[in-house]
Amino acid sequence: MQHAVGSPLPPPHQPGHGPATGWTPAAHRPGPHHPGAHQGSAPVPPPPPAPGFTPAPVPPTPPHASVPPTPPHASVPPAPQHAPGPPVPPHAPGPVPDTTGHVPLPPGAPVGAPPPAAPDSAGTTLAVLLIGPAGAGKTSVAKYWAGHRRVPTAHISLDDVREWVRSGFADPQSGWNDHSEAQYRLARRTCGFAARNFLANGISCILDDAVFPDRPVVGLGGWKRHVGPGLLPVVLLPGLEIVLERNAERSGNRRLTDEEVARIHGRMAGWYGSGLPIIDNSQMDVEQTAKVLDDVLARSIASPPSW
User: Fold this and answer.
1) Residue 200: Cβ-neighbour burial (10 angstroms; 0-12, 13-18, 19+)
2) Tens digits of per-residue pLDDT, 197-252?
3) Quick check: 235 and 278 in contact, CB under 8 A?
């Protein structure tokens, strides 16, 4: 007797236990794909019944109809041959289901204004732009804030995306020119597309960039175009002494000269009076600044700034 296709596999053999009752290893019961499948195998005697056990009566098996043998020298008519029909076209492969959780980007500006009735920012899907000079702590605060929310949140750093360019990187420290400005624009579009993709899939995002209030090319207009009108900008602006100290702890092309830091900090002062929320984190650590950022965002949700 052969097992039907799709029948459950026999239980695995465990040390100290014999094979399951009534099951014979496959080596003694060849299947249809083993040689000798049509040959009889030695009968396996059933196990003796347990003491006190009376087997149920088995109804008699009806005799099989006998097939008359073919007489000698009798010719067997050949099987009818069917005319070959037209070739069957192969089935076109159906659409492969997408199991990655990808959601196509909606048309237009996908980031609308956040709901004003939201009680806080901790459980709301948001798009935040953290602005500040070099040494303000934007990256550290953004990473901490993104990593301690109750909803999925991504951190997108403009400087990190700019440095994806390895050969031909236009470092603004070597002088601001058309080449470095073009790479800034390209990085901003890339960050904006990434933010839209995250938001379309229900993931909040926080971007950080040194946006100057007096330079339209590196201003809020580009971020609003790339991300949407629901973007919430917040300025992180500690005192000059704190910025100089934090910049001194940097290395590589992220570290600027004191003169450059002071010049950037002075230009960032133009955000005062702009209507954007400003956080002076001179006396705050990263965790405290992230908590203040939550409070500021909650007020921005209730009353979005005009920018």
Assistant:
1) middle
2) 999 999 999 999 988 887 654 578 888 888 988 899 999 999 999 989 888 887 77
3) yes
pLDDT digits (tens, 9 = 90+) for 249-278: 877 767 778 888 888 889 898 898 888 999
CATH number at residue 159: 3.40.50.300
Residue 108 within a domain: no
**Residue 219 parent element (H or E):** none
- DSSP single-letter state for residue 269: G
Number of domains comprising the chain = 1
Decide if 101 is inside a domain: no
The pTM score is 0.59
Would strands 127-131 and 278-279 be described as parallel, antiparallel, or unpaired? Answer: unpaired
Would you say residue 190 has pLDDT above 80? yes
Report the candidate in 191, 67, 202 with the shortest Cα–Cα distance to residue 123.
Answer: 202
- Kindly state the average pLDDT of the residues 165-185: 83
Report yes or no on 285 lying in a domain. Answer: yes
Running DSSP on this structure, what letter comes out for residue 39? S
Measured in degrees and rounded to the nearest 5, phi and psi for residue 133 equal -75, 170
Residue 277 domain boundaries: 127-302
Q: Which residues pair with 153 in a beta bridge?
A: 204
d(CA 134, CA 255): 8
Inside any domain, residue 254: yes
Give the residue among 267, 276, 292 at the shortest CA–CA distance from 137.
292
